[in-house]
Amino acid sequence: MRKISFINLFITLTFLAGCSTSQKLATLKPEPDDASPLIYESNPSFINLPISIKLNDIQNQTNSVLNGLIYEDNNIEDDDIEIKIWKQGPIIIQNDPENRDKKIKTILPLKANIKYRIGTKKLGIELYDTREFNLNGVITLSSEVALTNWKLNTKTEFKSLDWNESPTMTVFGKNMPITYLANPAISAFKSKIEKSIDDAIEKSMDFKPNVLAALEKICTPFQMSDTYESWLRIVPVEIYSTNAKLKNDLFLLDMGMKCNMETIVGKQPEAKFNPNKIVLKPVVKIPNQITANIAAISSYTDASKIMTKNFAGQEFGSGSKKVTVKNVEIWHKDSKMVIALDVLGNVNGTIYLNGFPKYNSQTKEIYFDKLDYVLDTKSKLMLTANWLAQGLILKKMQENCRYSIQQNLEEGKKSMATYLKNYSPMPGVFVNGKMEDIQFDKIQLTNQAMIAFIKINGTVNVSVDGLK
Fold it and tell me: Model pTM?
């Protein structure tokens, strides 16, 4: 039997090792950064809220405030008059045909009891004669409309009084017709009627509780994605309003809200709505479009799966020196994306690349600019597989390190659309609108996801039908 010397065995093993078809690559993994808490920076959004309210709703609210005895003055000593006024039927509020788009007309059926004192007081002797009038008719008033400090204010002017019955005066316990005396007496109480109407409309048309209640509901964080556990939180900064105006049977008010839209991953965040800090600022004009800045979230896990599919069936290299990518995993470190490629072939192991995420607006894809091997990976490749470190192979790999966020963008747009299709944040209030094409803004990295911020322009209209 032929014996193999130790030297021959060593040479044989060395030769076989040199002829091996693969090499094991041991590289250091760049550990991901911790970006907690996951609150993303966003630019302020501006939401236009043109509000329309039917005059019929103002009428209903005014009728709910003014019922039965609507005015009473029992002190005759201050101005020689006592007045009691009762509403006899529903108040009618409509556009004033003589001043369309500027004033409202109020028709008030009423009954009045007036005690009017005539006389004087001299040398401690009271010389008075008190007359009592009973009036039953319909008063017509005209009011200018304005909005001040959240409230609808009117400046009402007495226009006319049509008698349902001839005015009477009580004489010896009997009602005697006194039409010729009653008309001059109207001047004694018409200012009281005007003030009663103004006070009632101001009280019934205080928009602050309704606006704040609607805002509170809108600003409650809502879930945009179950998969990524993402929430959208709206935080109002300022509320704007133009002057009120009338058009046909509608009361129109342009309002706008400057707000921050924050996207948060994890458990449901607390609302950041503080009604005490909301101030209504008057402005001359508000744009008729909204600009919403929202976030399309792509988790690293989801993006990794997409890029793994991009590499399927592809080989990188030339001749007998080739590798295939079996799996891709990405994360973020030092404002860059780290891309880990598990390779099999002439080299087995994991190679790490890094680069800056960019967005292609035409293909709606995220890609990575200035992609290169991380320092440790490059050093190991230069020692063991220099052919794999060549720029041509790296460029081909870079072509597959991309993925589309079209679906994410559409999901973000779909989430917004939910709140623009007859959305009712409270009874009687309805929100409708439409959105234009989405525009990419910027990318921000966290420890769980890549956030693509987008802008959406559109219109919003808020109508009030049956305000309570």
Answer: 0.56
